[in-house]
């Protein structure tokens, strides 16, 4: 990385992350860019450069359980010498449930409407140059704290936006593990983008097929425990599990005309591929 004086310094992990985001923002043109990330990115080194841009890139992320925030400083009754305080009383974020009014809201998570208890408050945190909106949620005994640098969002929006992160991660995981997203054999940028676009199209077609044939008998798992971020009815993981069960069931238990065709093959692998096709 080279500064205005021509002095080069090695790029850190955060520099690489910022470069990618800023380039994506340029591609997005007039569309609003919002970053949704996990706890690892809830630090000043990552967030502050996003907020310091002419057009800030807002972020929603999860806080660590030991995170602390600060209230606004109290105005002194008499003027004192020295620089005025920038921060007020320090409080533990998870303790907001004990000190602030609790709201009961309904949110849509993983295609289900759930009622959860939340506490929302704007605080100074992570040594950022502005206040952020903090939402502490409680679902059963699980307490989680989220922050949004965009204080125009309400608690419901913040929770639902953060929850959508999992569907994106599932898509990337499935494309890497099942469709070879990282297996491109190019060094030039354009063919690499074309390959990634091709994989994304193939993934989308697969999702459409799953949606169309979701009620097929072979896609119904007997011990299915309901939708989760990892095993929804549109999950390639579920497709793989059900296809394996269907194939093995046909090979081991069924006595159909298809089995007679399978017996002509010389290996179990060929038999499974015959049924799967």
From TrEMBL:
InterPro entries, A to Z: RNaseH-like_sf, Transposase_11
GO molecular function: DNA binding; transposase activity
Domain Transposase IS4-like: 18-203
One GO BP annotation of this record: DNA transposition
Source taxon at top rank: Bacteria
The protein's name: DDE family transposase
Organism of derivation: Marinisporobacter balticus
